[in-house]
Amino acid sequence: MDMHLVVVRPFGGLARGEAITDAARIAAILNSEHAANVVRVGTASAAPAPKED
Length: 53
Known about the structure:
Blueprint: E1 2-7, E2 19-20, H1 23-30, E3 38-43
Antiparallel strand pairs: 1-2, 1-3
């Protein structure tokens, strides 16, 4: 499962509802005073397509 962040309180030029998907940026935000301004959202990894017989 992958994870991204969604902004719940605007900060640093980011608007409410904006998604952050860059791994380095996610780590930087979670290790900053802005961690309380985002929520973590899990996304299912893409499942392989079923084989056709």
